[in-house]
Design brief:
The structure is a homodimer of 107-residue chains. By secondary structure, the first copy, chain A, is α+β, with helices and mostly antiparallel strands. Chain A is built from five helices and three strands; from the N terminus they run H-H-E-H-H-E-E-H. Chain A has one domain: Winged helix-like DNA-binding domain superfamily/Winged helix DNA-binding domain (Arc Repressor Mutant, subunit A), CATH 1.10.10. Chain B binds a DNA duplex (30 and 30 nucleotides) through helix 3 and helix 4.
Chain lengths: 107, 107
DNA sequence: CAAGTAATTAAATGGTTGTTTAACTATTGA
DNA sequence: TCAATAGTTAAACAACCATTTAATTACTTG
């Protein structure tokens, strides 16, 4: 799951959250950099990561480049986590199997 | 969100998934290492990361140490992602604001 | 076309992460 | 108590990641 790794970094997570808030219109790179208070190259670096993970899309408008969140990708990440890390919808512990051998030490 | 970073690594994600499958009983470290096919020190390293993120708990039983997934922590991670990266429950794009200035170039 | 703006790419660098090998601690059982 | 087993901790090292500065591309407007 590439998208998981992409979001596991403060700057990228913050950037993505701003894009989510911005909706389908997205935000120009410069605007994002300003809001995140990071340099343009640093932002480019992180946006590249997000784009590579399929979490954001870029659309050029004149000399601006608008980035927007890909909600489908996010939803599929959420789906993956729910299924694989939560035993399905409700994040329930799997049924107990009743194993466990010897002298239990309740330290 | 420490747990996000903790899961953003293949070995740790795999380990966590095995623990989720194992349910509340958990798995002994050695068993985990065997299933993941990694060395004990490598596993220790990653379990330490997961534990530090609150995603797993350890319980000693004789000379075995059983690790189990913390489902509450996972659920709260899921909650965070849903709220912050998806505009709430349904992962819907935010309402369009109808901005956008000049000559649209539909390249 | 020249100057200016928006953004990316390139190169260098410091910091973090993951893996390995070796040494260590703790528990069990002969 | 000694040997064996389960696991962690420590130290060394390679690989990767994020930030910076400088250079470059692309678009717009005078």
């Amino acid at each position: 799951m590439k998208s998981l790794a992409a979001l596991a970094q403060d700057t990228r997570l913050d950037a993505f959250r701003l894009l989510v808030q911005a909706g389908p219109e997205g935000l120009a790179a410069g605007e994002l950099a300003a809001r995140l208070d990071i340099s343009p190259p640093a932002l480019s670096f992180h946006l590249r990561g997000l784009a590579h993970a399929g979490l954001v899309r870029a659309q050029q408008d004149g000399r601006f480049i608008y980035y927007s969140a890909d909600f489908d990708a996010m939803q599929s990440l959420l789906g993956f986590l729910t299924e694989n890390c939560c035993n399905g919808a409700a994040c329930t512990p799997a049924r107990a199997t009743g194993r466990r051998s010897s002298a239990r030490r309740t330290s």
